[in-house]
Write the structure tokens for this entry.
Amino acid sequence: MSDPFDGTERSLGQLVASATAEMSALVHDEIALAKAELRQDVKRGAFGSIMGIGALVVLLFSLPMLSFALAYAINTWTGGHNGNGGWNLVWCFLLSFAFNVLLAGLLGLIAVAKFKKVKPPERSIASAKQTAAIMQNAKPHPRPEQRPALEKAAAVGRSSV
């Protein structure tokens, strides 16, 4: 780009061309920056998702151990630790299972309540419909340099009838 204070004058066309080229370069650079930022965010999100899924898998595989620990804790709590036998282990495991089912039911009810609160994006839909209605009624206006060509086309159309 030339120095604006070097004494040379540029024409209006040159100035417009220069401004257009610089704006185009700026837009391309901003798009490249946005792509790089999105790419980095997607990588972070994917890594976080993988770690979260890994944590859930480990938690899922540890649930049987929790059930065994709960069943043996019930047996111990009912007197099985001192040799008197306590409750039969079958009942202890059934209680452990019932506790897990109740917990799953409670979590399921909370999930259903949260899903019922999810609604469609009404403002966005209304805005899109309004824009579509406006665009349906909009007619393109010919550019000033196209009008003579349109008049010639109309004249040719009239003369051929």
